[in-house]
Specification:
The structure holds two protein chains of two kinds. In chain A, strands 1, 2, 3, 4, 5 and 6 form a six-stranded antiparallel sheet that branches. Chain A has eleven helices and 15 strands. Chain A is of the alpha+beta class. Chain B has one domain. Classes of the chains: A alpha+beta, B alpha+beta.
Chain lengths: 324, 172
């Protein structure tokens, strides 16, 4: 597959809709074509990730192992779809096994090449990161919807939560000690200027335990970052609930609506008293779409959280965590 | 002290929190010398954690304190992944990590934990008979391990028909 053909293929992808010609050419330069026969395992769950792939043609099945050597198919992906993007972002291991079920032509982007784009501060890398955030967000929504269906039949399938607190009603306070903020693992890799840009973009608020900040099915009016305490992300149907995540110090929640405009897929309630950084829509969008070092920090924080949320939603264990 | 039975207090020889919490859990059982079923052991463990929360409040203790517990009678077991005041760390302790990744809890269940090819793994089984609980996955292939979420209690009972296994939200 020539570089020109690769560029044309990339230009046809909804994922890359709106990318400039120069950005597509830059991406085409670092993508490697590969053919894979039916039955080929592209990677196994738990393998160290070397990169992500775009499917030019063919079909790839994505499956997850369960305890006791069983497996469940999560998805079948076809032409124009992306797989393996999660470890591209967080540097971890593949969260599922990918197996070719119809002879496939693929384009791969290695972690090393992607990291090189990022380290050069190349705008294409950050544009791609934002698109992957959208894609990860939509995959997270699908996974959470599947989990919510497991809680009850269609008639009982309406979220049941308290209305959330509005941002204006929060108890705002001063920022925490900056030395404490630097101790949070989330920020270890960021320079002082980038971190300052991020942490001064919003306001800080204290919340008692049991405060609902985001309600499933309703748009969230802010993104929150937990500084202290813990915020539970849950799906509730009638008397049943599944905990799908816990946002402890350095972890975010409430951002899905601000990324794609949809309703929140989860309810977020403080499990402990909490100190939160509150980023309403305007500063969120400025950071998410910006090209400053603070924006890059923010994008990494959101990516890390999206990836962790998706990894957790993949695990069937969440289904077992029913309330007593 | 008033929550721990006097006869159990007298048997405490060490100074570790584990020993005191164990005595506190035993004190919540109807018969501390018996063989409680998993449900009774779970109730006693949750009751002990509620007492600890109350005592912490009385003494103004409000910093993150992990309490991952593991108790078994040989046939029944209870394990917790739990922290009081999760996510609150003392400002003055600059060496304390804030993420505490080492207080995790993982489990895998299946037929038996045995050598397969060149490594140990949990074998497949329609009816689980074995459960392995550890702070981190122990095998090279970690795909069949499940991370136990925070605020969670695992209970299990070994029966002739297999293993009764339950995961509960620990609301104390």
């Amino acid at each position: 597959m020539s570089e020109t053909a690769t560029t044309s293929f990339l230009a046809s992808l909804p994922l890359l809709d709106g990318f400039e010609e120069a950005e597509l050419v830059e991406l085409a330069r670092v993508m490697r074509p590969r053919d894979a026969p039916e039955g080929r395992i592209l990677w196994r769950e738990g393998d160290e990730a070397k990169g992500m792939m775009l499917i030019v043609e063919g079909l790839v099945s994505v499956s997850l192992r369960l305890p006791g050597d069983r497996a469940v198919e999560l998805n079948t992906l076809g032409a124009g779809e992306m797989l393996g993007e999660i470890p591209l972002l967080d540097g971890g291991r593949h969260s599922a096994t990918a197996r070719v079920v119809e002879p496939a032509r693929l384009l791969s982007l290695s972690r090393a090449d992607f990291a090189a784009l990022v380290s050069r501060g190349h705008p294409t890398a950050f544009a791609l990161k934002r698109r992957i955030a959208h894609l990860t967000c939509s995959r997270l929504r699908l996974q959470l919807a599947a989990l919510s269906r497991s809680l009850g039949d269609e008639e009982a399938n309406e979220p049941s939560t308290e209305p959330p607190l509005v941002v204006e009603d929060l108890e705002f306070c001063g920022p925490p000690d900056s030395r404490y903020m630097r101790r949070l693992g989330t920020f270890h890799a960021f320079d002082s200027l980038a971190l300052w840009g991020f942490l001064t973009a919003g306001r800080y608020a204290r919340c008692p335990a049991g405060s609902t900040l985001v309600a499933e099915g309703q748009p969230s009016n802010a993104c929150y970052l937990t500084i202290n305490g813990a915020v539970e992300k849950v799906i509730i149907r009638g008397g049943r609930r599944i905990r799908v995540g816990l946002a402890g110090p350095g972890q975010a929640f409430g951002y899905e609506s601000l990324i794609d405009g949809g309703p929140s897929p989860v309810t977020a309630t403080t499990r402990e008293r909490a100190l939160l950084l509150v980023l309403p829509q305007e500063p969120f969008e400025r950071l998410f779409n910006g090209d400053t070092s603070g924006s890059h920090v923010f994008l990494d924080v959101i990516h890390r959280d999206l990836v962790a949320a998706l990894r957790q939603a993949h695990r069937p264990h969440a289904r077992l965590a029913a309330s007593v | 002290m008033r929550h721990v039975r006097p006869e159990l207090q007298r048997r405490i020889e060490g100074t570790t929190d584990s020993e005191w919490i164990y005595a506190l859990v035993l004190s919540q059982l109807e018969d501390p010398y018996g063989l409680p079923e998993a449900r009774e052991l779970a109730d006693a463990t949750a009751a002990a954690l509620r007492i600890l929360r109350e005592v912490r409040g009385q003494h103004g203790i409000d910093i993150s304190s992990p309490v991952n517990l593991f108790l078994t009678t040989g046939d029944a077991l209870v394990a917790t992944r739990f922290s009081f005041d999760y996510g609150w760390y003392p400002d003055e302790d600059t060496l304390l990590e804030t993420d505490l990744p080492f207080v995790s809890l993982w489990c895998t269940l299946g037929g038996e934990y045995a050598r397969a090819d060149d490594a140990f793994a949990m074998t497949a089984s329609e009816t689980p008979r074995s459960l392995l609980i550890a702070s981190e996955p122990l095998t090279l292939d970690i795909s069949t391990w499940l991370e136990v979420p925070e605020y969670t209690m695992i209970t299990a009972t070994s029966t002739s028909a297999g293993l009764d296994f339950e995961t509960l939200d620990l609301d104390v």
